Amino acid sequence: MQTGEAVTIVHGDEELLARTRHLFATATEIACAANSLGMWAVTHVADDLDALARERRGQVRVRKVFRPGVLLDPVAARGVARTREHHGAQIRITTDELNETILFDRRVAILAGDVRAGRRSYSVVTQPETVQGVTSLFEAVWRAATDVDVYDARIAEIRLLAPRVLDLLGQGVKDEAAARTLGLGVRTYRRRVAELMDALGAESRFQAGVRARELGLV
Amino acid sequence: MQTGEAVTIVHGDEELLARTRHLFATATEIACAANSLGMWAVTHVADDLDALARERRGQVRVRKVFRPGVLLDPVAARGVARTREHHGAQIRITTDELNETILFDRRVAILAGDVRAGRRSYSVVTQPETVQGVTSLFEAVWRAATDVDVYDARIAEIRLLAPRVLDLLGQGVKDEAAARTLGLGVRTYRRRVAELMDALGAESRFQAGVRARELGLV
DNA sequence: GCGGTGCTGGCAGCTTGTTGCCGACGTTGG
DNA sequence: CCAACGTCGGCAACAAGCTGCCAGCACCGC
Questions:
Q1: C1' (D13) to CA (A204) span, angstroms
Q2: Matching Gene3D superfamilies, A to Z (chains A, B) (predicted)?
Q3: Rounded to an integer, what distance in angstroms lies between the CA atom of residue A184 and that of residue B175?
Q4: Mean pLDDT of all residues in chain B?
Q5: Would an 8 Å CB–CB cutoff place B76 in contact with chain A?
Q6: Closest Cβ opposite residue A206 in set B209, B214, B216
Q7: SS3 A46
C-alpha cells in the first residue's frame, strides 16, 4: 500500500489487519458501519488489537452502527455489549441497508467488497473527497440510527424463541405445523415470524432466509 | 491423532488436511458426500493434493455425491466437471439430505461437524462398526442417486437465469415486480422460481434463501 | 376488589405464492 | 406444407402467508 495511492485494494482479513494496524493505534476517531460482526471480527481475532483498544479507551471516539439482525445472535449480542463496555464504543442500530465501512479520523475509509475464493476484498481509500463523501453518509446514518439500548430490550425477548422459530423455518415447516410444534397458536407464531423478519430487515421469507444464514443464525 | 482412538475430533481445514494427507495418498477407494463443494475445497486448496489425485488416477476409485444445488453455481459446476475429468471421479446427484462425509477404503470415515468461530470441526472415525454403518448409508445414497449428466443438462439451463432470479428474490422483490423486471410473464417467472427451489431442495422460500446463501449463490 | 395493560389465539379479509390448464406461437423434422 | 413438440403467458383455483380485530385471560398497582 503506497502513500500516493488514493484507493488500494486489499485482499483478505490478514492483509487488511497488517495494513491498518497503525490506524487503530493512532486514530482519535473510529467509525464503523456493519451488517454483522463479521467485519469487526478482524479486530477481535487480533488479541493485541483488542488490548490496544482497551488501552486507548479514553483517547479514541469509537462509534458503530449495526443492523438489528446482529442482536438476534446471542453470541454477537454479547460481543456488542463487550465492545461497548471495554472500548467505550457508542453503538446504534439502523434499519437502513449498509455498506460495510470503517472510517479513521475522516481521513481513511475502508469499504468492504465481495468475498472471492473465501477471501474478502477491501478498498482502502485515502482520497479526501471520497473519504468526505463516505463520512457524510456515515454521519447521516448515525444521526438517524437508534441507540442500541432501545433495540436491545425488545430484541432480547425475540431472541428467546428465535432459535426454535428459525430452525423450523429453515426446515421448510409450514406455519400451522410449526406453531403446533412450539405449542403456540398460529397467530402468535406468525407474530414471532414477523418480529424476526423485522429484526432481519427482510421483506420476504426468501430474503429473511438469506439474512439469517448470513448472520449465522441458521 | 493416535492409532488407538476410535473417534478423533479435528478442528479446521488445515488440521484436517495435515492429518489425512496420507489417506489421500494411499487409499484405493475414496467416497464423498457433500452439500456443497465446501468440504472438497480442502483438497482443492492443497495443490500437492490435487497433483497427487491426478497422479493416482488409475489407482483409486473416487465417488462423490452432491445435492443438485451445487450445480447452480457456475464455478462449482465447473469444479465438479474438472474433478470428473482430472481425477476420474464418478459423480452422482441426490435430493436427500446429506451429512458431509468422506470415506477411505471402508476403514476411515470423516464426518463434518459444525462451524465454530469460523473453523469447522471434523470427526475422524476408525471404529470398524461405525465406519461400516456410515459406509452402508453412503452406499444406499449412492445407489439411489442419479448420474450427474442427467441433472447437469437440465440445471445448465436453470443456471442461465438463476443469478438474476436469485438476486431479485434476495432483495425481497415480489413475483409480479420481479417478472416485470426480467421481462417475463409472472407464470414463467414462477416456473423459474419453482425450478430453483427444486434444485435447492427447498420446500419454502425461507429454506430456499438459507440454501442459496449456504451455496454462495446470493 | 377493580381498572388498566399487555399478550394470546381464533377469525376473517386480503395479499402473495403454487400449480394446473390451455390456447397461441415458434421450431423442427418428415 | 403439416404434424408434433416444447415454451410462454393469461386465467383460475387453491394454499400459504400477513395482519387487523377483538374477546378472554393473567398480571399488576391502587
A1: 24
A2: Winged helix-like DNA-binding domain superfamily/Winged helix DNA-binding domain
A3: 30
A4: 84
A5: no
A6: B209
A7: coil
Whole-angstrom Cα distance, residue B41 to residue B36? Answer: 9
- For the domain spanning A150-214, the CATH number is 1.10.10.10
Query: To the nearest whole angstrom, how far is the Cα of A198 from the nearest Cα of chain B?
Result: 13
The residues in A 174-193 lying below 8 A from B, measured between CB atoms, are: 174
B63-107 pLDDT, tens digit per residue, is 989 888 888 888 888 888 888 888 788 999 888 777 888 999 999
Helix (H, G, I), strand (E, B) or coil at B106: coil
- Predicted confidence (pLDDT) per residue in A27-48, tens digit: 899 898 887 766 555 555 556 6
For B27-85, the DSSP string reads -SEEEEEESSSHHHHHHHH-HHHHHHHHHTGGG-EEEEEE-GGGGGSHHHHHHHHHHHH
The C1' atom of C19 and the CA atom of A79 lie apart, in whole Å, by: 46
Q: Which nucleotide is nearest to A186 (CA to C1')?
A: C9
Distance from CA of A170 to the nearest CA of B (A): 5
Question: CA–C1' distance B105–D16 (Å)?
Answer: 47
Nearest C-alpha neighbor of B1 from the set B108, B135, B116, B118 = B108
- Between 3.40.605.10, 3.30.870.10, 3.40.50.1000, 3.40.980.10, what CATH number should domain A7-144 receive? 3.30.870.10
Enumerate the residues of chain B whose CB falls inside 8 A of the CB of residue A37.
Answer: none
The continuous run of DSSP H or E covering A95 comes out as: none
Give me B82's grid cell: 474438472
Q: What is the ipTM of this complex?
A: 0.83
